[in-house]
Amino acid sequence: MAANQPFxxxxxxxxxxxxxxxxxxxxxVGAVTKYGSGDKTYNYTISxxxxxxxxxxxxLSSLTAVTVALVRxxxxxxxxxxxxxxxxxxxxxxxxIAHATEESSxxxxxxxxxxxxxxxxxxxxCVRQLGTVRTDADGNAxxxxxxxxxxxxxxxAFEIAPEGDQPGIKLxxxxxxx
Length: 178
Known about the structure:
About 0% of the residues lie in helices and about 45% in strands. By secondary structure, the chain is an all-beta fold. The chain has a single domain, classed as Immunoglobulin-like (Sandwich), CATH 2.60.40. The chain has an eight-stranded antiparallel beta sheet with strand order 9-8-12-13-5-6-7-10, with no helix packed on it. The protein has a four-stranded antiparallel beta sheet with strand order 2-1-4-3, with no helix packed on it. Strands 11-14 form a two-stranded antiparallel sheet. A hairpin with a 4-residue loop joins β6 and β7.
């Protein structure tokens, strides 16, 4: 399996993902910068196996963000301390957290290669459901959801579960720390 490496995610002036490529040697993982115009107005550097982990949208007010993998695993604790991306785990997307304000954050959910035309619940683990996302005919999807920072613990995680909770196809995020 591929190891994580730095990638630059590119966004247009509307904050929509346009492309990804290998990051420059001096790129800072987590940094969001205004770059130019057109399809390369903003960039965001992540550490991932490939560019499919780039969030589909990134709030334009973001200066920094954190992206973690969504790993195929049925169970995890509230903070998913036992969820790891060790290179052999099946990764089927990512979650990106951008702090919008002191009071709220935006979670960008990206799903890749799942069951086509399927609805998935977006859960802030052990707290509540934040929304749903539906895959397209290729099994890919993306959306953002907002949540109050006060509802997340010091260490928190996400679960993406199909409607009906069929075993074997839940996704767990790696942990986030406030």
